[in-house]
């Protein structure tokens, strides 16, 4: 979070932001960062474990059907970014599916790392508390290559007009270049590796 713009002379907005943070299920330490330390909150995130993805997808389809919406085969309620899980939907998700996420308030200067495959509100609209600028960077770590491959496969089943249809992660290229670099380093140090 590189910038948070707080308008001057709008005292009621501070109360509204506090209420949003509290309603967002934030912990007491986070609330104190805002109320006592006077740090600048930029965005409220809700992040879920990757293992709960199918449960969340099933829940969102269920809610859509209850509201009379269609669930086309080539669309995905998570990747479509058309839902924001407010407090009542988060509570219902926990009660009906046993899924509970983490509420994270991103303050000015904070970094939020989201593991590959972990559904999060940013994929369905992050809740901005004030005007803010965030810098996002996708990367593939060795621990999450499996999830990245899985996401790439999910993207392929989306409609051709979907914004996530293309392979943005380019997992195979990342793996190729990582292996190429590792082999290059091993070859460069081959003589020192063969000594007892």
UniProtKB/TrEMBL annotation:
UniProt catalytic activity: N(6),N(6)-dimethyl-L-lysyl(9)-[histone H3] + 2 2-oxoglutarate + 2 O2 = L-lysyl(9)-[histone H3] + 2 formaldehyde + 2 succinate + 2 CO2
Domain JmjC: 1-156
InterPro entries referenced in this protein's UniProt entry, alphabetically: JmjC_dom, LSDs-like
Signal peptide region: none
TM segment ranges: none
Required cofactor(s): Fe(2+)
Family statement: Belongs to the JHDM2 histone demethylase family.
Known function: Histone demethylase that specifically demethylates 'Lys-9' of histone H3, thereby playing a central role in histone code.
Protein name: Lysine-specific demethylase
Organism: Loxia curvirostra
């Amino acid at each position: 979070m590189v910038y948070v713009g707080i308008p001057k002379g709008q005292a009621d907005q501070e109360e509204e932001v506090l209420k949003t943070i509290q309603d967002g299920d934030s912990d007491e330490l986070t609330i104190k960062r805002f109320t006592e330390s006077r740090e600048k909150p930029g965005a409220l995130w809700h992040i879920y474990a990757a293992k709960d993805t199918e449960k969340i997808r099933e829940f969102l389809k269920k809610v859509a059907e209850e509201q009379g919406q269609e669930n086309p085969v080539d669309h995905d309620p998570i990747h479509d970014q058309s839902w924001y899980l407010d407090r009542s939907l988060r509570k219902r998700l926990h009660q009906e599916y046993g899924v509970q996420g983490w509420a994270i308030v991103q303050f000015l200067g904070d970094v939020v790392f989201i593991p590959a495959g972990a559904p999060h509100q940013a994929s369905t609209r992050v809740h901005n508390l004030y005007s803010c600028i965030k810098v996002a960077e996708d990367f593939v770590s060795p621990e999450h290559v499996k999830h990245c491959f899985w996401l790439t496969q999910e993207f392929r089943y989306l409609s051709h007009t979907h914004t996530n249809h293309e392979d943005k992660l380019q997992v195979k290229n990342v793996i190729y270049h990582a292996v190429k670099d590792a082999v290059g380093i091993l070859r460069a140090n081959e003589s020192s590796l063969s000594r007892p």
